[in-house]
């Protein structure tokens, strides 16, 4: 695994240098959109909805539309003025009972690996969390944004569990839940009996993604039956006439356009002929050298 963050866990006067690693990864099979006729990848352009023209990245800013239909744009200078966090510490705010944390608040998980010299304080914090059955509420800056998070224990590792902010959790506003429902004692007894009959200790290794398995099987079957074709090679497109070849092509096109405008036929580029020697010089080279008589 590759560390995505490094810093230190700070609680009281104790500081534990750690590295953070993503604790989960997606195994979804990702497909590309391709042209059914030739297998070419489908490309998307950034088109303006007003003028229909393609827009360069340099001309794109962030926009926020208000409820009353007003548009507010933010450029790079505006975004740079926002407060960002780049600290390298996981500051423990408090230790809370584990059963008081709503799992709905959980976001992403990261394993914390201690430095070799910090193995003891790391183990001390881990065992203290286990014995007290508590989690540490912390604040940490990840990707320049401060997040609220938890420190909890999984096996021998301390997990940094980022959390959603409380206002990001929606409430179930269903009117039907407020309706009065009459439950008879016999029904409750039978429901509880059914729950007990299906009771078991949770073992996540017993479950697997059947849909992904079916996709892998389908792809393998097509591969073994020869239902494949070579992936088309995409030619690299030049960004503009910045190479010598493009420059010469542009000059040649300009010459041809100028000749066409003046009515002169376009000429093919020819090699420059070697200069001819003068006849007098040629005769001097061919004639034998004669001595001149002294006066």
Which terms would index this structure?
7-stranded mixed β-barrel, 6 helices, Prok_Ku, two-stranded antiparallel sheet, SPOC-like_C_dom_sf, DNA-binding, 295 residues, disordered C terminus, extended
Report what the structure shows:
The protein has helices spanning about 75-80, 120-130, 185-195, 210-225, 245-260, 280-285, and strands at about 5-10, 15-20, 60-65, 70-75, 90-95, 105-115, 135-140, 145-155, 155-165. With about 300 residues, it is an alpha+beta fold. The strands form 2 sheets. It has a 7-stranded mixed β-barrel with strand order 1-2-6-9-8-7-5. A hairpin with a 2-residue loop joins β1 (about 5-10) and β2. The protein is extended and about 100 Å long. Residues about 240-245, about 270-275 and about 280-295 have low confidence and may be disordered.
Number of strands: 9
User: Looking across the biggest beta sheet, what order are the strands in?
Assistant: 1-2-6-9-8-7-5
The assembly state of the depicted protein chains is single chain
Structural class by sheet pairing and helices = alpha+beta
Q: What is the string of helix and strand elements? A: EEEEHEEHEEEHHHH
Q: How much helix is in the residues?
A: 25-40%
Regions with pLDDT < 50 over 5+ consecutive residues? 240-244, 269-273, 278-295
Overall geometric form: extended
Question: Rg from C-alpha positions?
Answer: 38 Å
List the total number of helices.
6
Overall mean confidence score, pLDDT: 81
The share of residues in extended strands comes to 15-25%
Main sheet: strands, sense, barrel: 7 strands, mixed, barrel
Q: Ends: how far apart?
A: 101 Å
